[in-house]
Design a protein that fits this description.
Two copies of one chain form a homodimer.
Chain A lengths: L3 E6 L3 H12 L1 H8 L3 E7 L16 E2 L2 H5 L6 E4 L7 H10 L3 E4 L2 H18 L3 E2 L10 H8 L5 E7 L2 H13 L3 H10 L8 H4 L2 H15 L1 E2 L15 H9 L2 E11 L4 E11 L11 E8 L3 E8 L3 H20 L13 E2 L9 E11 L4 H11 L4 E7 L8 E8 L2 E2 H13 L8 E6 L1
Parallel strand pairs in A: 1-2, 1-4, 2-3, 4-5, 5-6, 8-13, 10-18
Antiparallel strand pairs in A: 7-9, 7-11, 9-10, 11-12, 14-16, 14-17, 14-18, 15-16
């Protein structure tokens, strides 16, 4: 029986995991597809340096043409990462009517909608379970729930580095820099952690999820995005005091006229499932109109969990190809431009931390500025001070539900007054 | 284009939800399958009494032959529940080479392995996502993870009634009977709640999960099963004091030589995801060798969540049929008899609550009996007493990790002594 011939583009940790799983489960996969799966060529950057799977070295090449130009290949698996040259390779694979499995969230965030359209127009599959949430089957669940349901909202912990750093800060009192260094030492953070801790990686994943869940084509750069650098140990302590933990979230909501997308740290009630997703684990909570609330969690990164997702996609795509049809992975994805809701128009509760000089009347000034902007205070706690010594003290206010626009207005008024000793910290409360 | 013709067996709440979702998403489903889906006949018990979907009444029948004997039907959807007559209907559908989608956990628990074999031998699909965990796509996730992974263990909150009752007892101090009455009033528990609160429903679901995850054919009646009737409010209070909550769990573990399956209430650490799955929500945690820990949670019952799962199955099965192949849903399920591990051979920590007469030396007697059996005590707390008045007091001991056999032996020795005023309560700690 003719094998399904696979071309592997890139062979880092995920690619190595894919080769390993394809080999270890060859019999099962062949039975399930109805034909054996064979990795016929692997595009790598440097045959000497790169981690190379235990494969016949004749199958390894540094020449893209040798892989992409081989008309015998049925399915390309793109695990190189980055936008270029991955984008051109994927486009070429689609244009020559081969199906593609990719785990490349950045590529999908930048060009996902166009690539899906391209695949649909050529009648091939473009599967990308591995691009979001590692081994968590969120793409599949969204695709299948959407067969008969309407996704109202989603919120997720989609960056393992952020979750690890926040977890260590909270449970062991580490500072941000110390927690990042530890994550780097354990291989959970890159040498340059910016893509993760500044929230960009989470924004990329949110754009991919929004494409599926809300049919929204959104530029990643336009998603309001905050990272976790500004969170201090004191914020974890205050959050705990109010019954919350701080998580870095990617949030999406279908608002009918548009979509609300945002990435930022938020206070989450301690007794919720999301609050208890710790360390490098990821989780995505969905709310479907028929399905109700659904949560998926697991390892969001790492070679093997992501490879499990990639192999599940390879299985689907190969099976479809073997049976003479395709487009399973992209069918039903209908993407269009949808306006983004401004953060100003989001309603919620807020955690506001002010460092102020301990003088009588300070709280009244803060409360007054908030009240003038129409923001009412639900709880207040002060740490230190009380003697009127003029020393800096910390005041934390939790607001009632209010428009973000109004909170911003109050903070601006406070900034130009002389009440606060430093820039106040604003954290959103996610309920 | 020829439609895919569907015969619906049973039309209660889930069946009604299926009809509703098929209609509401007809265009999408037709596009996705490549042919429209048409419900051509519906077998009901009583055309007058039953909740009847908004369908041409000519399609409703109380005559099984009119549905099962119609050779034009491509796919049967069985949502009657119960073993008989559903079993015969499903067998006949398979034998006449039609694919079947079922949400019937009891049927699958009793005859799942035989039905899967039958479907495989006839080359048709037997899909059953709706049978476990309502809208939670656990069957699909297991099937796809298994394409390249090995499931080591699973633990789940799979009965919404039990979870609701335990949640209400814990958070609001209700007694068992009161919480059950409330669940009944809200439609979360049957008039006869035994199937749920005695753990049998959870055992059925565990048997279905074990078939998928471990390839194990196990009789539901042989799974060690305990319900939640014996849990008292005081147990919730003690559990909380030690940092746990009480959950009703279905637990499975592949032990190589056999499988360990058990259903019982257990203490779960408060800061875990499972501990925070509350009310009628269900959750299933899996541990895959490559995938690591994965958790899925959502509404475990209800017409619409289950109907979403059934429709996702119908979509798969119809698409396969339309494309001239089948067996997707059952492929890779390889079931064989596997020995069950005795509870005696399970290792774990235990919560033991004794009601004793408040006399000097009582604790020493308890500790002595446990020590004689090789069980060591990690923590102890006593409620009430201390005056040596002979009044009943509560003593709770948490053991170190030990064999259940040894704990049982100690409890037997204590039972024949005159130390305890009543039968001690044993709860397992799940970590």
């Amino acid at each position: 029986m003719n094998p399904i011939r696979i071309g592997l583009l890139g062979c880092g940790t995920v690619g190595g995991g894919v080769v390993q799983l394809l080999r270890a489960n060859a019999d099962y996969l062949a039975q399930s597809v109805g034909a054996p799966l064979e990795v016929v060529s692997v595009l790598i950057r440097d045959t000497e340096k790169e981690r190379v799977p235990d494969l016949d070295r004749a199958r390894l090449t540094t020449d893209p043409e040798a892989v992409l130009g081989d008309p015998s290949i049925d399915v390309f698996v793109e695990v190189m990462g980055g936008v270029n040259p991955a984008r051109g390779y994927v486009e070429r694979a689609i244009d020559t009517r081969r199906s593609v499995v990719t785990a490349n969230k950045m590529l999908l965030a930048m060009h996902g909608a166009a690539l899906v359209e391209r695949a649909v127009s050529k009648g091939v599959d473009l599967a990308f379970e591995g691009s979001v949430g590692g081994g968590i089957p969120v793409v599949r669940v969204l695709r299948e729930a959407l067969a008969s349901d309407w996704i109202v909202s989603l919120e997720g912990i989609v960056n393992g580095t952020c979750n690890y750093v926040l977890t260590r800060m909270r449970t062991d009192g580490l500072g941000f820099d110390e927690a990042v260094r530890e994550a780097q030492a354990k291989g959970y953070a890159e040498a340059d952690p910016g893509l993760d801790v500044d929230g960009h990686d989470a924004a990329h994943k949110l754009v991919v999820l929004a494409m599926l869940a809300f049919g929204a084509r959104v530029e990643a750069g336009r998603v309001p995005t905050e990272g976790i650098r500004a969170i201090e140990p004191i914020d974890h302590r205050f959050a705990e005091r109010f019954g919350f933990v701080i998580k870095h979230l990617a949030i999406g909501r279908d608002r009918g006229e548009g979509v609300e997308l945002r990435v930022h740290p938020a206070l989450v009630r301690r007794d919720t499932q999301l609050a208890n997703v710790n360390g490098v684990l990821n989780a995505i909570a969905l709310e479907g109109r028929a399905l109700g609330p659904t949560l998926l969690s697991g390892r969001g990164a790492g070679d093997l969990p992501t490879a499990v997702s990639v192999v599940a996609d390879v299985l689907d795509v190969a099976r479809a190809r073997r049976n003479g049809f395709a487009g399973l992975a992209t069918r039903g994805i209908q993407v269009k431009e949808r306006p983004l809701t401004s953060l100003d128009d989001v309603r919620g509760r807020y955690y506001l931390r002010f460092q102020v000089h301990d003088r009588p009347g300070v709280l009244a000034q803060l409360a007054g500025a908030l009240g003038d902007a129409g923001v009412s205070i639900e709880q207040m706690v002060q740490e230190g001070g009380g003697g009127g010594t003029g020393q800096p003290v910390q005041i934390v206010l939790l607001t009632h539900e209010t428009l973000e626009r109004d909170v911003r207005r109050a903070l601006e008024a406070i900034a130009v007054s002389s009440v606060a000793a430093s820039v106040p910290r604003l954290l959103r409360i996610q309920e």
